[in-house]
């Protein structure tokens, strides 16, 4: 998956914070969840607008 399909940076969306494309979910949220011991499945349940492919595509 191309990075442009995964990440969007737009000053109109969360002041330019990198978000998952097509969402308003900050990329940082995934890393925060994983660092806190939250599973990928739980993250995806919490943020249903983020696809599994997008989340895995960051790695």
Description:
This protein has one domain (3-57): Arc Repressor Mutant, subunit A. It is 44% helix and 7% strand. The chain has helices at 3-6, 27-35, 40-46, 52-57; strands at 7-8, 19-20. A two-stranded antiparallel ribbon has the order 1-2. The longest helix is centred in the middle third of the chain and has 9 residues, at 27-35.
- In round numbers, the mean pLDDT is 96
CATH topology: Arc Repressor Mutant, subunit A
Describe the sheet with the most strands.
2 strands, antiparallel
Q: Which strand order does the major sheet show? A: 1-2
Summarize the entry for a quick read.
Helices cover 44% and strands 7% of the residues. The protein is built from 4 helices and 2 strands; from the N terminus they run H-E-E-H-H-H.
Summarize the topology.
Elements lengths: L2 H4 E2 L10 E2 L6 H9 L4 H7 L5 H6 L2
Salient structural properties:
7% strand; WH-like_DNA-bd_sf; 2 strands; 4 helices; globular; two-stranded antiparallel sheet; Arc Repressor Mutant, subunit A; mainly alpha
């Amino acid at each position: 998956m191309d990075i442009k399909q995964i990440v969007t940076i737009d000053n109109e969306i969360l002041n330019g914070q990198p978000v998952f494309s097509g969402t308003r979910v900050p990329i940082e949220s995934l890393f925060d969840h994983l660092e806190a011991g939250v599973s990928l499945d739980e993250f995806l349940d919490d943020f249903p607008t983020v696809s599994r492919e997008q989340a895995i595509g960051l790695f």
